[in-house]
Amino acid sequence: MNTGEDKYVLEYHTGDDSDPQGPPFKYRSYYLADVLAEAWRIAESGGQAQRVARGRQAVFEGEGLDTMLARLSEQMRAGPDVVLREVAERALREAGRAAGG
Q1: Range(s) of the domain holding residue 74
Q2: What are phi and psi of 93, to 5 degrees?
Q3: What share of the chain is helix, strand, coil (3-state, %, to 5)?
Q4: CA distance linking residue 24 with residue 19, whole number of Å
Q5: How far apart are the first and last CA of the chain?
Q6: pLDDT under 70 in the chain at which residues?
Q7: Does residue 55 lie in a domain region?
Q8: What is the pLDDT of residue 3?
């Protein structure tokens, strides 16, 4: 039985969230690179990515998440043909983390 523990979960608030103190929105994927790509999109649109977890274990949060998103931003400047998911996979490899599920 699938309990959802095998998915990565991004907790975030949007830039226009009417209650930023309320519970965060959640985005789920089996792939860490997808979750980080979504976190980057949210941050770029004025939102705030708060935490990436798998099950109850935090994968990225706070300064670690900020550092990873900064790494993605830096690599996205490479040109218009870059693919965000590929950038996230490369950043994870460079950080010594697995990109898959």
Answers
A1: 8-94
A2: -60, -45
A3: 40, 25, 40
A4: 9
A5: 17
A6: 1-4, 98-101
A7: yes
A8: 59
